[in-house]
Amino acid sequence: MTKLPSLDFHCHGCIAQGRPEEIRASLEECYSRLGQRLPERVEVHLFDTQSQQATFLECEKEKRGITTWGDEAFICSHDAWLGHPRLLICIERLFALSPIARLGTIRHEAAHTVLHGAPIYYVFPIPADCIKMAQTKGVSSVVLQQVLYYCAIAVKDFEVTRLLLHQGYRECQVAFAEAQFTPSDEDRLAWLLAKDHLQTRLLFFTAQLKPLLLAWLLKVAELFHLEKSTEAMLDYLESEQRKQLLDMATNIASQLGENTHDNVRSALRQSLQMLL
Fold this sequence. Notes:
The model has no long low-confidence stretch (mean pLDDT 95). This protein has two domains: 1-123, 3-Layer(aba) Sandwich (Glutaredoxin); 125-276, no CATH class. The relative contact order is 0.11. By secondary structure, the chain is α/β, with parallel strands linked by helices. The protein is built from 13 helices and four strands. The N and C termini lie far apart (51 Å). A four-stranded mixed beta sheet has the order 1-2-4-3. It has helices at 19-34, 50-64, 91-94, 99-115, 128-136, 141-166, 171-180, 185-194, 198-207, 209-220, 226-233, 239-254, 260-275, and strands at 6-12, 41-47, 76-79, 86-90.
């Protein structure tokens, strides 16, 4: 019988009765299906509001000198900064999802702890040729590091979706993907500010890889209409810009293998080649 990870729950704020139990049951069910290379222990932090989760994450980053941004906006985030996998879950936003999308989200996070539950999956050196390429175009080291981060989270979401589809999780992963393609007023404003500047445009486009790479797998499995969803999510882009973004995501996704570090390097290199 598969030995499931020990789940160490920490509640921050007023968490409604039954919420932790539902999340625990969903995680354990998923671990019993994944059944290999399971972590011994997973730390699970539940936050009643997004602002409380963001404050906690900001403090954690400051303690560890982490300068990338973006994960404070996620419903859930994952890390292994302490040497074991850890999940941060915003109850307010998780339970605003439909039950099937909520289940897909929890399973997605469980798979991250299996595939990316060690510190090595949160440290990615930038290849010398990518540094040179960026310097030639005047891209700062801070921007390049953030682009690397966007490529890394996109690659890891791709790998998680591939694992879950292999284990037969289909409907919940489609629902999870659909939730990622919700149009955002913040993204619309970000594009207005980014479109005329090389570095901010680079950041904007690579930030979109997170939903696109995982959705590409669902498209290949004939479960998701990637082009139509992208058009709805990014209707403020010109059709040529959406095509460029989709071509980039398709090229990256179609070449990803089994090694996470190789995949991140490939995604970064291709992003810079296509956008600089």
